Amino acid sequence: MDELEGPEGSVTPEARAERLGELQALIDLMRPAVQADGGDPVLVNADVERGVVEVELAGACSSCAISAATLQGGVERILRDRLPWVTEVVGGVDDSMDDLESAALGRGAYVPRF
């Protein structure tokens, strides 16, 4: 049995806290790069036992044509490369913001969707 696992393969409370801390630290490390284009990565949920992490891209990301590429090619790749327990990254964009308001936040390499 792995030292991070409890009975029947469950993650110990200590390991859970450690994994969540590492995950949040990594999201915070990526945040300035996404914010440079007017977006923001938000950790929505993390199932540390199954390795599934849900991330939402907010701000200018909701009206950006390359949001899916940022999520899959950037966020997912980095999380899976640096956190061996992460098996899947799911999510999308926060579409609650008006497209024009979202587009106004874009700058840098921002690519408008419309």
Query: Could you name the CATH topology?
Result: GMP Synthetase, Chain A, domain 3
How many helices does DSSP assign?
3
Helix content: 40-55%
Secondary-structure element order, N to C: HEEHEH
What is the CA-atom radius of gyration, in angstroms?
A: 16 Å
Could you say what the CATH architecture is? 2-Layer Sandwich
| CATH domain class name | Alpha Beta
**Shape, please?**
elongated
Give the neighbour order of strands across the main sheet.
1-2-3
Q: Quick check: average pLDDT?
A: 81
Instruction: Note the beta-strand portion.
Output: 15-25%
Number of strands: 3
Q: Give the low-pLDDT segments.
A: 1-8
- What is the count of structural domains? 1
Q: Could you say which structural class the secondary elements and strand pairing correspond to?
A: alpha+beta
Keywords:
GMP Synthetase, Chain A, domain 3, single chain, 3 strands, 3 helices, disordered N terminus, 3-stranded mixed beta sheet, alpha+beta
What do you see in this structure?
- With about 110 residues, the protein is α+β, with helices and mostly antiparallel strands.
- It has helices spanning about 15-35, 65-80, 100-105; strands at about 40-45, 50-60, 90-95.
- A three-stranded mixed beta sheet has the order 1-2-3.
- Helix 1 (about 15-35) packs antiparallel against helix 2 (about 65-80).
